[in-house]
Amino acid sequence: MIRLILLGAPGAGKGTQAERVADTYSIPHISTGDIMRKAVADQSKLGAQVKEYLDAGQLVPDELVINLIRERLSSDDCAEGFLLDGFPRTVAQAEALDRTLSELNAPLTHVLELDVPEQMLIERLVKRGEESGRSDDTEEVIRERLAVYNEQTAPVSDFYSKSSRLVKIDGTGSIDQIEQAIKEKLN
Ligand code: AMP
Fold first, then answer.
1. Fewer CB within a 10 Å sphere, N or C end of the chain?
2. What confidence tens digit (pLDDT) does each residue in 2-58 have?
3. DSSP letters of 17-30?
4. Active-site annotation holder among 3, 37, 89, 124
5. CB atoms < 10 A from the CB of 180, how many?
């Protein structure tokens, strides 16, 4: 049984690795960023609530994301495990996740963090912006997202480190090498 969160800065490769891992272990890949980008594209009520935050590279309010994740984790397909990508992004989200999972009797089995130096993050994000056209991969928004990460999300690693749950993985190698390193930790 794998109930995993994948931590790491924007550009650390979470999304790429999350897809591969979820595929290998046949578990749902739950990306809060993907859910919210889709909501914006679909022009749903949620989309209208979150669009300005995504465009500015800022975090959507905790309550909104926490409710979204609580609902998602309660659905049937998560009974066999799951992979969270992009959540939790604040200590309040991490605490809420612990409470939700304890209610569901389904504690996390793995907390992995992809470790990548900041200069490499910027290079990767600029390149991704050129290739994918993701609207928040412009240089100005990239800098804002990294600042938000350092201020609000880096403490999440300390939160898991304090409870001896954090396992760091070198995120500087090739996609295949990193995938291998993750699987070694999971097996
Ligand atoms: P991502 O695709 O994970 O980089 O997320 C893209 C954007 O979605 C972020 O810059 C935030 O605006 C928003 N977002 C995604 N996950 C969260 C979260 N857990 N808490 C708050 N905002 C989030």
1. C
2. 999 999 999 999 999 999 999 999 999 999 999 999 999 999 999 999 999 999 999
3. HHHHHHHHHT--EE
4. 89
5. 11
Q: What is the amino acid identity at position 20?
A: R
Measured distance CA(27)–CA(21) in Å, rounded: 8
- Say if domain 2-186 classifies as CATH 3.30.710.10: no
Residues in the ligand 1 pocket, defined by CB under 6 Å: 10, 32-33, 36, 53-54, 57-60, 65, 86-87, 89, 93, 136, 145
Instruction: Identify which of 135, 138, 133 has the alpha carbon closest to the alpha carbon of residue 40.
Output: 135
Beta bridge partners of 6: 85, 112
90 and 66 in contact (C-beta within 8 Å)? no
Shortest-distance atom of ligand 1 to CA 31: 3
pTM of the model: 0.94
- Catalytic residue, from 3, 37, 124, 145: name it: 145
Spans of all domains in the chain: 2-186
Query: Which residue matches tokens 């465009």?
Result: 55
134 an active-site residue?
A: yes
